[in-house]
Amino acid sequence: MASHIREFLGHEKPSDYYSKLAEELERTNSEYHAFNVIKKDTEAKNQVPFSTKANICVKGVETTAGSKMLRGYVPPFNATVVERMLKEGSFSFIGETNMDEFGFGTFGINTEVPARNAFDSRYAAGGSSSGSAVATALLKYHVAIAESTGGSISTPAALNGVVGFTPTYGAVSRYGLIDYANSLDKIGIMARSSDDARGVFDVIRGRDNYDVTCAIEKITNNKKGKLFVIEELLEKADPKIRSEFERLLDKLGKEYEIKTISMNILSDAIEPYYIIAMAEASTNLAKYNGYKYGFQYGEFNRRYNDFFTEARSNFGMEAKRRIILGTFIRSESVKARYYTKALMIRQMIINEMGKVLKDGFVISPTLPIPTPKIADVEKLTPVQNYALDVFTIPPSIGGFPHLTFPYAYVNEMPIGAQIITEQANDYALLDFSSKWEESFQYKYKHNIGSL
Ligand code: GLN
């Protein structure tokens, strides 16, 4: 299938290619806000442009994870994934992409200036890797290094009509990632084709002495003949999404045996996910007190509480909510009731999904609703918002690799479907979508940087 990376590398570029690209990105950024930082002085020579989500450290580039709290933070080192991309020699860093603060969000709106959907800027970009998806939909030749905790690659990829690949937990090093929830965070890729995603995966994956949890070295390609649809989850999809999804299944049914199955435990995956994610997030955010880590607000010559309160007021609304809830969940008196129970449910999900995934892929829509307008997302309550992660949380909580591919439009906006496989079988997903994506005849509205 289409490899934009190969195509790009096969053509000599004019010497001003990268400066022109930066100029054009600068221009589109005033409408789409895909980038937090655009690198202007690149010295690239025929290298494929790549961006990184703003929670991945890039040496010498302000990296804020979308938070006011990290204003002015310029890492003195590269994250392992960045280091590997640069070392490989075929890729050139062009900038850092917009995101929900620390990864807290589904639509990209929990940040100072939200990114906007590349198909229509009135619509939500999806999140939390909002800018990665928008940049991928805008740029013809580009790959994005993104990150997901509970769906942050799948969701924005689906809403902008690009491929979003979230590898097995532990297949890609998290060294240099600004953590959201360490037991759930995965660095992954967005691209315009699965072949491009595979090319990048092979560059960034593999053991790293700086991250002991990055222990998955061998990736398999066990083909599956069955596609499972989980009844309890599909019921939650909007009728328009369902009918497009059923058309997709008709098409795939020519090659795969499609089976609808019941997996009751997945109706209860959102609660343990948010309990675990918030508990871990609240411990990760504790270090940002403006003293050693985080933006220092004013001088130290004030009372302890005044200083820290002012420093921590730099957190946005959603971050504050998660600090309060996460701290509560971990407190001694309720820990057994929430946190410990959530860990038990997580293990049950891993076991049950693991059994099913031995036999076939699990497939679903990526989001239960058509792409919403930004104004409508702003009206959602937090619980309504969290509930929309219904399809992306099951693979996330289990550390199973998953991939979203664009396949249709609803209300003239792209929608995606997501397939999941067992741990370390990532290549099977990339092969599956590489085979099918061409038949969806996907059209991009923007082709910045086309040769
Ligand atoms: N929407 C989910 C959350 O807010 C997932 C976000 C993510 O994967 N970073 O936690």
Please describe what this structure looks like.
The protein is an alpha/beta fold. It contains 16 helices and eleven strands. The protein has an eleven-stranded mixed β-sheet, sandwiched between helices. Strand 10 and strand 11 form a beta hairpin. The longest helix has 24 residues, at about 335-360. The relative contact order is 0.15. The model has no long low-confidence stretch (mean pLDDT about 95). Glutamine binds near residues 128, 149 and 389.
What is this structure, in a nutshell?
The protein is an alpha/beta fold and 451 residues long. The chain has helices at 4-9, 17-32, 80-88, 130-138, 154-160, 194-204, 231-234, 239-252, 270-285, 304-312, 317-330, 336-359, 374-377, 382-387, 393-398, 426-437; strands spanning 35-38, 48-53, 91-97, 143-148, 163-166, 186-191, 226-230, 257-261, 361-365, 402-410, 413-420.
User: Which regions contain 5 or more consecutive residues with pLDDT less than 50?
Assistant: none
The hetero compounds bound to this protein are: glutamine
Q: How widely separated are the two ends?
A: 19 Å
CATH architecture of the domain at 4-220 and 401-437: Alpha-Beta Complex
Describe the secondary-structure layout:
Blueprint: H1 4-9, H2 17-32, E1 35-38, E2 48-53, H3 80-88, E3 91-97, H4 130-138, E4 143-148, H5 154-160, E5 163-166, E6 186-191, H6 194-204, E7 226-230, H7 231-234, H8 239-252, E8 257-261, H9 270-285, H10 304-312, H11 317-330, H12 336-359, E9 361-365, H13 374-377, H14 382-387, H15 393-398, E10 402-410, E11 413-420, H16 426-437
Parallel strand pairs: 2-3, 2-4, 7-8, 7-9
Antiparallel strand pairs: 1-3, 4-6, 5-6, 5-10, 9-11, 10-11
Helix pairs in contact: 4-5, 6-16, 9-11, 9-12
The chain binds glutamine (GLN).
